[in-house]
Amino acid sequence: MGDFYTHIYLFYLPLILGNILHMIIVKRNWFIGLAFPISKRMFGDNKTYRGIIALPILTGLLALLISYWVGPFKKSLIYDAFVGFGLGLAYILAELPNSYIKRRMGIVNGEQSKKYKYLQYFTDKADSLLGVLVFYFFAIDVSFETILVLFCIGIVLHLSLSQLLVLLKIKRKF
Fold it and tell me: Closest Cα partner for 59 from 105, 28, 101, 90?
């Protein structure tokens, strides 16, 4: 599977820390000038320009800092920052189709379908993870088996961290 520490430092840490910082930005309502919806009709109120700008920048900067501290992991510090930026952008963009489908089904922001509750819960957690793994697969040139392992670990981390962030009152819903 290669050097798994690379995946921890270049994949998991920037995404986890970037998302936590993004949630703090949203909770404290920082950068309010960017907090307007990309398309209310298509994606609802919660998919904003603030997220599409902040998360890639945060994950890119975090990947750069971690790469400077521990790496570089791939070709250069700048390439590692590009990977972090791409991961953040892929995360946000991969959430849009799910939001679009939920709006078409009449499900309001932050709520779940009554009929497909468990399927929706899984897609709410897996959509962004699938998006970042597709980007990572091409950016880092890792095997499909490694991607499967990263997905399994990632889904457990996503569920666990979501629950922890709700308990810490950083996030509203699990």
Answer: 90
- By the 8 A CB rule, do 26 and 50 touch? yes
* C-alpha to C-alpha distance for 69 and 91, rounded to whole angstroms: 24
Omega of the bond prior to 37 within 30 degrees of 0, cis? no
Q: Is residue 173 part of a domain?
A: no
Condensed to tens digits (0 to 9), the pLDDT of residues 108-150 reads: 776 777 777 788 878 888 999 999 999 999 998 889 999 999 9
Report which residue type is found at 103.
R
The tokens of 136 are what? Answer: 């990572």
Would the CA dihedral through 133, 123, 170, 151 be positive or negative?
negative
Residue 12 structural domain: 4-167
In this prediction the pTM is 0.89
Q: How does residue 174 score in pLDDT terms, banded at 50, 70 and 90?
A: low
